[in-house]
Amino acid sequence: xxxxxxxxxxxxxxxxxxxxxxxxxxxxxxxxxxxxxxxxxxxxxxxxxxxxxxxxxxxxxxxxxxxxxxxxxxxxxxxxxxx
Length: 83
Hints:
Blueprint: E1 2-3, E2 6-7, H1 18-35, H2 69-78
């Protein structure tokens, strides 16, 4: 696989940039929050699964292409104290 003229590293086939990923995460967080308004017993939930998918274990790990950037975006979108 190639992206922008460079061969993708094994396991790094994500086509979104870290900035696009953050925008997507924020959108999903907004959907989750909006879907639970008025239902105090229902917590907002966003399921992140099959990121690195080592043997279908569904790990969330840094990648060769972006390092910790994608995980930092998850923290920025969902971390403690996120408005």
